[in-house]
Task: structure prediction
Amino acid sequence: MNTSGLMLFWVSAAVALGSAVGTISMRNPLRAAVSLLIHILSLCGIYLSLKAHLLATIQVLVYAGAVVVLFIFVIMLIGPTANEQRAPRAVGTRILGAVGALLSTSVLAFTLVRHDAQLLPIPQCPPGAGAECGQFGGVTAVGAELYLGSMVPFELVSILLTVAIVGAIAVAKGKTTATSPKNEGPTTPEGAA
Amino acid sequence: MDALTLTLSTLAKIVFIMVIILTFAPILVWAERRQSAMIQDRIGPVRAGVKIFGYNITLLGLLHPLADALKFIFKEDFVPPKADKFLHAIAPILVVATAILAFAVIPFAEPMYLEHLGQVLPEAAARAGVVIPMQVASINSGILFIFAVAGTGVAGAALAGYASDNKYSLIGGIRAAGQMVSYEVTLGLTIVGCFMVYNTLLLEDMVTWQREHVWGIVAQPVAFILFMTCSIAETKRIPFDIPEGESEIVGGYLTEYSGMKFGMFFMGEFIEVVALAALATTLFFGGYDVPFLTSNGFNVFGMTANLPHVAVVGLQILTFVVKLAVMIWFQLMVRWTLPRFRYDQIMALCWKYILPLSLLNILVTGAIILLLS
Result:
């Protein structure tokens, strides 16, 4: 990795760690959501330092653009009740939490110290190759890998997603008709919101 | 290209883009007011002027945006006492920054060969020296970058609504988030047909395809109509301005903003208009393409008139700006022609009409490509 790549990695990693701590420690749920947004953007920087350009874009597109916005949307719908103070935790819970955190951290640290990740060279296009070669981590390369190399898993995942969407609609619909059978479509602009 | 040339040329391009954006924004404010006045048979703003030697210089009202800017800067920046000050402050920054970022991948002329500036551009094999691509960044994922950045901008409007500690702001923020998330999905789907025809995600390659074949509006007319509808909804302007709806919720998520923070939202809206015009130009109107102009000069049905490389690039930049202006004019016309939709109408339009239509467009485009190949 060259110097600029390393710099990108260290800056992104530091911001990612800081904002991750912020996400779980902020009392205000919306501030936590903003921390998550920053965390996701810094993860995008780490992907870029790994030369995964498409993944970085998708990360921003899906997580920052859709998932975090959905979080914010839900927090706003819940309203001020989302801001309520948490009940103080019992001593036992605290000790259990500390032990759990210590154990998982030590397992991670042990693995990192004992095993070095294999450094693989990034596949390069041969000089003079056309556009069909596809830059590593770019749209063409990832697309070829996805649609030519693993078509069946990809289609299976899309079927699974469709089933999940249909299931979500079925579950939500059942509840709506049980509580308010007359609520057919929005009547006021606020009802639609 | 060495690091110094790269840095200098990139800086120059960023400055060019910023100048375009920052001059278009105040002129747009003026154009919108004057145009609405003409449409509604009023005079519009013409009074603000500077007295020089007894003459009142008004420049047809062009000084009004300047007066606006002065007012924004010197007005008290009021933050509601119970508002979340941090979120209240970063919301307008998010909106403006994401709007400007979209320009990073838009090409505004063909690559410039510094060695051949004064002469007619030779054949591709004989070209030498430093090449400067006329776009700030050529990103591999191309247009996906614009969608990714625009999607993050949604958070700005929603945060503004929440942080203001005001019921009207909250309703406006929720409306904005719901509307923009919905239309973002369809916005991406409407132009998948274009990707299939152009066979690329890179905006510069899209323009090249359109120069060699036909403009995108001919190849994908349905996509153009759907894309314009979705993107006007994304900018939250009339007829899709329900998040601000003055007659119902005061000013929506803008209610508690004043001073330069409001100014930034105001500017953000106009930057989004310019960005949308740039994207529509690049996708459907050939970008910087001048009809009959090749890299060597004009070529009208066999009759050629050679032009030096620098003139070709200059003409292309000029054409791009003119096309931008036309697309912006079109958006302002829409703004002052249609009345505001209801919220359920906006949602129904998105999910019940545009989404199926864009899926159908993808299907038909795929079938035609399969038949032709």
